[in-house]
Amino acid sequence: MPRPTYPPVVRVLVGCAGDAVTAAGRGDHAEFLVAAARLAALDPDHVGLVLGAVTRSLLEQLHPDGLSGEDAQAVIAGCISDGSAWFPDVDVNALLLVLSGALGVFPSDEEPVPVTPLGVAQHAPLLVAHLLTAADEAFDTVLHSALTEIARAQTTEHP
Q1: What Rg, from alpha-carbon coordinates, does the chain have?
Q2: pTM of the prediction?
Q3: Helices (H), the chain
Q4: 3 Cβ contact partners less than 8 Å away, ≥ 6 residues apart
Q5: How far apart are the C-alpha atoms of 16 and 22, rounded to whole Å?
Q6: In terms of CB atoms within 10 Å, which of 75, 100, 116, 150 comes out highest?
Q7: Which whole number is the average pLDDT over 11-15?
Q8: CA neighbor of 32 nearest in space, from 16, 48, 20, 44
Q9: 5 phi and psi, to 5 degrees?
Q10: 39 φ, ψ (degrees, to nearest 5)
């Protein structure tokens, strides 16, 4: 199947996200830091939308009956276990923010966001890489499916 053609801004985001997820999956600390910094330089709303959709899709696949509190705790613990050996800056609060954001739960406007865009750009790919391994899926497949769903939702919202 031919790859879809995306607008330039989406292609850049796809490339940066792919590099960060790939580096996280390999446990390549130096490459991961560079890729995450590139990802953090992009619009944080776009990064959150796309990687949130990928995360949500993987969670739905891995937990078709819904994600319980125990399931969420196991996902976070597994991600910490996978990442802490090569990425000593794993932050449970950042992972919780990324996971809850993927599920549509965000801090209120009055609450300070406890994680920087760089923290999100590091922990979202870390979480995605963990979930991809658990689901035995390829990033490109899940990413393109998520982008298709985002486009469909935006077309429905703004015909």
Answers
A1: 15
A2: 0.91
A3: 8-26, 29-40, 44-62, 69-84, 92-102, 117-135, 139-157
A4: 144
A5: 10
A6: 75
A7: 94
A8: 20
A9: -100, 125
A10: -65, -40
